[in-house]
Amino acid sequence: MSAPIEAEGLVRRFGELVAVDGIDLVVEEGEIFGFLGPNGAGKSTAVRMLTTLLSPSAGWARVAGHDVVTEARLVRRSIGVALQDAAIDPLMTGNELLHLQAVLHGLNRSAANKRGGELLERVGLTAAADRRVGTYSGGMRRRLDLALSLVHEPVVLFLDEPTTGLDPMSRINLWDEVRKLNEEHGTTVFLTTQYLEEADQLAGRIAIIDQGRIVRDGEPAKLKESVGAPTLNLMIDPDHLDGARQAVCARFGTERPALRPGELAIGLEGGATQMAEVVRTLDEIGARVDHMELLQPSLDDVFAEATGRRLEGADAGDGASSAADPVGGGT
C-alpha cells in the first residue's frame, strides 16, 4: 500500500516566481509530519497543491493513494483541511456549521447531529455550540475549524499554520487536540508551521523548506544532533565586535548566524568547559561582554546551518500564498 502522501519533483510557478522548486516527499501512515519554514518559503503553496487547490506546474503527487490532478475528487473525499485563512461564517453557530458540513459530506440528519456533538465535545466547544461563531475567540475558531475538517473522518489531515496569531495557552490546547487525534485515531497529520517549538513538540519527522526547496529532513532530535557544538551567543560592545569575532572564532569555533543584530554567535566546540577561556580572551583585547548564553543545538541552528540565516524573526510576506485562491477551512 502506498504512503498517505507522496510527491516527486513537485513544482509550482507563478509567472517568473518559482514558489515550490522540485520537492520530494513521503509521509508515512499515522505520523505527524512537520513542514517547517519562514513566511514565503513555499509551505502553503505546497499544501494547496497536495489538497488539489492548485495544480502543479511540474512533478506529481498522490494523497491517500490518489493523484492530485487526475483524481482530485477522490483526494478531496479522503482528506481534511484546516487552512490558515479559514473562512467561517460568523453569523452561524458552531452546531449549525458542523451540521452543514456533515450534510455536505452525505450524512443524514441523525448522523450529522451525532457527529457534530462528538466533535464539539472533542475540541472542548460543547458549551459554546449554540453561540454565533462571531463571538468566539481566535483559539475557539481554530478548534472549530479543526472539528469541521474531521466531520468525514479523513485519512489525512492538513493543518496549515494552525496556531498563527493564537495566545500561548490556546496554542498549547490546540497541540493537545492534534496529539489526541493522532494517538487515539491514527490520523496522518501534515502540519505546516513557522514556529520551531511547534514542530519540535508535535512532529515525529520534519522537512525544512526555504525558497521553495527542502534543505533538511529527518527526525528533530537527529537533525539537532547533526549540528554538533552548542551555540555561544555574545553581546559585545560595538567598538570591539570585529576584534572579538577574529579572536574568538580563531580559537574556539566557527561563526554562526547571530540570534540578534549586533551579536556574535559561534559553535563552541568545547562546550561549557571553554566559556571561561572565551571570557579571558575577550578580556585580553579589552572587549566588554554585556551578555553571554550557551544554547544547545535547536531546529533554528539546523535552519541556520542549511541557509546561513536564522528562522526566528523571519517576516517576509508569502507572495506565493497570496497568489493562491482563498478557501475556507474544513474541506
Topology:
Layout (H helix, E strand, L loop, with lengths): L4 E10 L2 E11 L4 E5 L6 H8 L7 E6 L2 E2 L4 H7 E4 L11 H11 L4 H14 L15 H12 L6 E5 L7 H18 L2 E6 L2 H7 L2 E6 L2 E6 L1 H8 L3 E6 L4 H12 E4 L6 E6 L6 H10 L4 E7 L3 H9 L11 H5 L8
Parallel strand pairs: 3-8, 3-9, 6-7, 7-8
Antiparallel strand pairs: 1-2, 1-4, 4-5, 9-10, 11-13, 11-14, 12-13
Tell me the domain tally: 2
Strand content: 25-35%
Structural class: alpha/beta
Q: Assign an overall shape.
A: elongated
Structure commentary:
Helix 5 (138-149) runs parallel beside helix 6 (168-185). The protein folds into two domains: 5-218, P-loop containing nucleotide triphosphate hydrolases (Rossmann fold), CATH 3.40.50; 226-306, Alpha-Beta Plaits, CATH 3.30.70. The strands form three sheets. The protein has a six-stranded mixed β-sheet with strand order 6-7-8-3-9-10, with helices on both faces. Strands 2-1-4-5 form a four-stranded antiparallel β-sheet. A four-stranded antiparallel β-sheet has the order 12-13-11-14, with helices on both faces. The protein is built from twelve helices and 14 strands. It has 331 residues and is an alpha/beta fold.
